Amino acid sequence: MKRATILIFILAVACAACKEKEPPKPVEAPPPPPPSAEQLRSEALNTLTAILTPGVPATKEEVQQKVNEIVSKLNPEPNGATAKTMITSDVRELLKTAKTTAETTNQPNDWNAVLKMCDALEAFVPDDTRIESYRERAKLEKSKPQVFIKGFTTDTNTNKAMVIVEVYLPDEDRTERKQVMENEEFFGLKYIETIGKMKGIRLRYLPTGDEFDVLR
User: Fold this and answer.
1) Which residue, 188, 101, 183, 203, is CA-closest to 140?
2) In this predicted model, what pLDDT tens digit does every residue of 135-188 receive, in sequence order?
3) 11 confidence band (pLDDT: 50, 70, 90)
């Protein structure tokens, strides 16, 4: 009887050993690392470029809404605060570059770009007191009258030379024709002097004090 029991036990153990071993459970892959600050920065700048590019129309509200959406995405990210600091610095540099470009070209679209950069930077750092000086300059330049020389004549009473100009007023979207003598002020401008033998005129924009030439 004992031999039979031992035999049954040995057979049971042997059968158990013959069974295939269960495959090991797969090891779960660790979660991917969070986006780096540089990755977050690159993504945010790509988003901002679409709205800050010169010539792309966008209101202050639209620009700042886009910035707020970016900040909302950055806030929960482990590297979000670092990325926000980097992006703010980028926008500040873009503002300086935009101002330099606008001063060179003096084109309305380029001054519009300065205004959009101001709006974006204000959304990132509302307490930056330097923004307003950029914004005020851009607004003044956008309001600057555009002067076109139509000819020269002589004042019959004083026998002094006069210039005949057409002046486009951007804020009012209208054009005025006027005869102006040297040292006369008109539409926020002052006629400083005639260039050469009536080749053009030098004007001063009174709100900023900047002087510029208008040639025939």
Assistant:
1) 188
2) 999 999 999 999 999 999 988 888 888 999 999 999 999 999 999 999 999 999
3) very low
The amino acid sitting at 197 is K
Please give the radius of gyration of the chain, using alpha carbons only, rounded to the nearest integer. 36
| HEC string for the chain | CHHHHHHHHHHHHHHHHHCCCCCCCCCCCCCCCCCCHHHHHHHHHHHHHHHHCCCCCCCHHHHHHHHHHHHHHHCCCCCHHHHHHHHHHHHHHHHHHHHHHHHHHCCHHHHHHHHHHHHHHHHHCCCCCCHHHHHHHHHHHHCCCEEEEEEEEECCCCCCEEEEEEEEECCCCEEEEEEEECCCEECCEEEEEEECCCCEEEEEECCCCEEEEEEC
- Crossing angle of helices 80-105 and 108-124, rounded to 10°: 160
> How far apart are alpha carbons 91 and 113 in whole angstroms?
12
